[in-house]
Write a structure and sequence with these properties.
heterodimer; A: mainly alpha; two-stranded antiparallel sheet; 14 helices; 8 strands; B: mainly alpha; two-stranded antiparallel ribbon; globular
């Protein structure tokens, strides 16, 4: 049986990064909401606000560790499975990763320990500061990894020499054309994720009529954050797409299912793609909208896939459908949170069982949207691992046998499935215990119950 | 060979030393966890590392990131060459991390037993395999002209590397027991002190054996020491520090014992660095294929930029890390929940 090492390496990377990326958006989003809650606690000094913050901090900690564990995999994997890539880009790509560790991993890990364990040791001001450091660390960590990934999409600040990409300007490499739109888009997505997670869990408490006051407070906060974040994501996503239109025309064409280069290019709301025949069926589209959105002018010419040779086409269907599904979910988030705000304004939110159930089942949706977005971005970049500079097929570790990659893929599937189930179990237990009664309050005499 | 390249060779060494000193004590505690049957004692041991382990592990990520940034060919060659071994270490680290946070999240005995095993095994495997990796780097890897590894998984299981690996395990076990003795009180502290003594005697003997075997093997591992005899000060310092461990531990001077253990680790890393320099990964089949400071490094601009960033970021990190250690000073209790 012939195993393709390139395909297997890509599958393994997709699986491992897909699993990993369930957690950082959650913890970045929750992290900032926790800062808000800690700000309130610092002001009121009430037990209620303290227990509320500690409940969510507990869920944060349980989720953060799975992100950390699966994150180590990512740092290893550039070297283990993509050695030729690492040689080619190391002069540029390695630095953001090292900076991420020095400036952000230490920050979030060290202060998380304070946030989890320091409650009886330091003042509320220090605890608040710790929560801020955790949120900043997590967000800056996203910045640096996105710097690295964005450089793959829109390389800048380099020249080709000695068989590799070599740095000519750190500032240009870091602030390459796609860094800022992608950072903003991702972090706002994280806020949506954290907020809707909190909404769904608060809804659970309200449906069970347990810890009602805690749940109402959390729900109000989360709903507000979710609504604002969901609405802002619209212009942020647009800003990102405009950048793609300008810097990665093949990807834009795939995202939009545009085969023929044309003016007044249509934006497709729905269709069934047939990439082999370069056509779409059952197409529902708005004429000229793509030209307008991408370049600000109904008459602007948008490049179609036909302008590129077939060996430069990304997988069209996967790119197209993941992008459109993500946008659909984004619209749903706006609509659903708007409904919640309306119900809140009318004083009917906490009694509306239908909305509460909707919020509960909506928990997985932002996670799915994040994954779909990444599929769009990374699959849409194919066949390039560094856009226009290095092909994915030329980037793997040539000394690793395909059989070994298959073995580790299987191991990752088993281990990550186990971790995922365990994570769900521990979250559910914390929810059943609830705030104040939960292990959040179990830390007795943290000054050490030293035995004699 | 440029000043920047030499500087980064040294900085990588510093980051590696930081890792084995900091994460070394919680890996070591994980080792002893396996042999600790009493639930209260287990909880206390866990408490002694709970505020620190996550930050400690970051030293590994920083070291790895720094190698990637400064010497990308080393990163690529070693990580792809040692594929299965690194994957084993990775899975161990994954289980260790998650087990620490998940262990106390259920009343079920089966749950606790599973995650306790995950914690111990997840600690012992890196403690052993990191030494095996170091042994292989010292001894050299078979490389081709394209800087790629030409051996197999079993190439890595040679006697010399296994010896270094077991020595490393004894080193981490000693370090962990000394930390536990220092950070706990009562019976478990005394038990840890005795365990440290036991592990230390194995560690000291094995260290001497390693030095002797290396001298007998000679070759490129010893070449620098033959040419520049003043380098013997490093292994001498290591031996002195190791002996100091025994001395202070016997007297119950726990902080000095732990400090000596940390110094010993630093000196051991100086010893191995002095052996390697200016190679990063010697090629055991043909010296011309070795990865060196010169042929494996990034450009001067990258090295300079990274140096500035490191000189800003690392001191800041040291300050707040020290602050948090001060915050949690004193003996750990039994509480393991947040």
């Amino acid at each position: 049986m012939h195993l393709d090492a390139v395909l297997l390496s890509r599958i393994q990377f997709a699986l491992t990064v897909g699993f990993h990326f369930l957690f950082p958006p959650l913890t970045i989003g929750l992290g900032w909401i926790i800062v808000w809650m800690m700000t309130r606690y610092k002001r009121t000094q009430s037990d209620f606000d303290r227990n509320l913050a500690r409940f969510w901090i507990k869920l944060f900690g349980l989720s953060f560790v799975v992100g950390v564990a699966s994150g180590i995999t990512m740092e290893f994997q550039f070297g283990t499975n993509w050695a030729q890539y690492s040689r080619f880009v190391g002069d540029i790509f390695g630095a953001p990763l090292a900076v991420e560790a020095i400036f952000t991993f230490f920050l979030e890990s060290t202060f998380l320990a304070v946030l989890l364990l320091g409650w009886d040791r330091v003042s509320t001001g220090v605890m608040w500061f710790a929560s801020l450091m955790v949120a900043i660390g997590a967000t800056l960590s996203a910045f640096w990894i996105l710097v690295a990934n964005s450089w793959q999409q829109t390389p800048a600040g380099y020249h080709l020499a000695n068989g590799r990409a070599e740095l000519t300007s750190f500032a240009q490499a870091v602030f390459n054309p796609s860094t800022l739109p992608r950072f903003l888009h991702t972090v706002d997505g994280a806020l949506i994720t954290g907020a809707m997670f909190m909404m769904g869990i608060s809804a659970w408490f309200l449906l069970k009529r347990r810890n009602v006051d805690f749940a109402k407070s959390s729900m109000r906060t989360a709903l507000l954050v979710a609504f604002v974040a969901a609405v802002i994501e619209l212009p942020l996503g647009h800003y990102h797409a405009v950048q793609v239109a300008h810097t990665q025309p093949a990807k834009l064409a795939a995202i939009e299912g545009l085969f023929k280069t044309q003016r007044r290019a249509p934006a497709i709301a729905f269709c069934i793609l047939n990439p082999d025949k370069c056509e779409t069926k059952y197409t529902v589209q708005i004429p000229g909208l793509l030209s307008l959105l991408a370049f600000g002018n109904w008459n602007a010419e948008v490049t179609g896939l036909e302008a590129f040779s077939r060996d430069e086409w990304p997988p069209i269907a996967m790119t197209f459908y993941s992008f459109h599904s993500m946008v659909l979910l984004g619209m749903y988030f706006i609509g659903m949170t708007a409904l919640g705000i309306f119900l809140l304004w009318r004083g009917k939110l906490f009694e509306s069982k239908r909305f509460l159930r909707l919020a509960l089942v909506s928990i997985p949706l932002p996670f799915i949207a994040n994954e779909l977005g990444w599929m769009t971005a990374e699959v849409g970049r194919q066949p390039w691992i560094v856009y226009k500079l290095l092909r994915t097929g030329d980037a793997i570790s040539i000394t690793v046998p395909a059989g070994q990659i298959l073995a580790t893929i299987i191991l990752f599937c088993l281990v990550y499935a186990l971790l995922f189930v365990a994570w769900i179990l521990v979250l559910r237990r914390e929810m059943r215990l609830g705030p104040a009664e939960g292990s959040a309050a179990l830390q007795r005499g943290a000054r050490g119950g030293a035995k004699s | 060979m440029s000043g920047l390249q030499v500087t980064w060779f040294c900085l990588i060494g510093v980051l590696l030393a930081g890792y084995i000193i900091m994460d070394g004590f919680d890996l070591g505690v994980g080792f002893w966890y396996l042999f600790t049957k009493n639930d209260n004692d287990r909880r206390t041991l866990m408490s002694s590392i709970l505020p620190y382990w996550d930050g400690n592990e970051v030293w590994l990520l920083t070291g790895g990131g720094a190698v990637f940034a400064a010497f990308p060919h080393v990163y690529a060659t070693v990580f792809s060459g040692l594929y299965l071994a690194l994957m084993i270490v990775l899975f161990a680290l994954i289980f260790r991390a998650v087990s620490i946070e998940f262990m106390s999240q259920s009343e079920s005995d089966g749950w606790k037993r599973f995650w306790s095993a995950a914690f111990s095994v997840g600690s012992i495997i890196p403690a052993l395999l990191l030494g095996v990796a170091m042994g292989n780097i010292l001894r050299g890897l078979p490389l081709d002209s394209q800087m790629n590894f030409t051996g197999s998984f079993f190439t890595l299981l040679n006697p010399y590397s296994l010896l270094i690996g077991v020595t490393g395990l004894a080193m981490f076990a000693t370090h962990g027991a000394l930390w536990a003795a220092m950070k706990t009180g009562g019976e478990i502290s005394e038990l840890s002190r005795r365990r440290a003594k036991g592990a230390w005697s194995v560690y000291a003997c094995l260290f001497v054996v390693c030095v002797v075997v290396t001298c007998i093997l000679g070759g490129h591992i010893l070449a620098n020491y033959v040419a520049y005899p003043f380098l013997w000060v490093f292994p001498a310092l290591a031996l002195f520090a190791i002996l100091a461990i025994g001395h202070y531990n016997n007297k119950g001077m726990k902080w000095r014992a732990f400090l000596s253990s940390s110094l010993a680790m630093l000196a051991i890393l100086l010893t191995t660095s002095a052996s390697l320099f200016p190679n990063m990964v010697p090629a055991i089949n043909d010296p011309a294929y070795s990865l060196t400071l010169m042929n494996a490094s990034s450009t001067p601009l990258t090295l300079k930029t990274m140096l500035i960033l490191a000189l800003v970021g690392v001191p800041i990190m040291l300050v707040y890390t020290a602050w948090v250690h001060m915050m949690f000073k004193g003996e750990a209790g039994e509480e393991v929940a947040y």
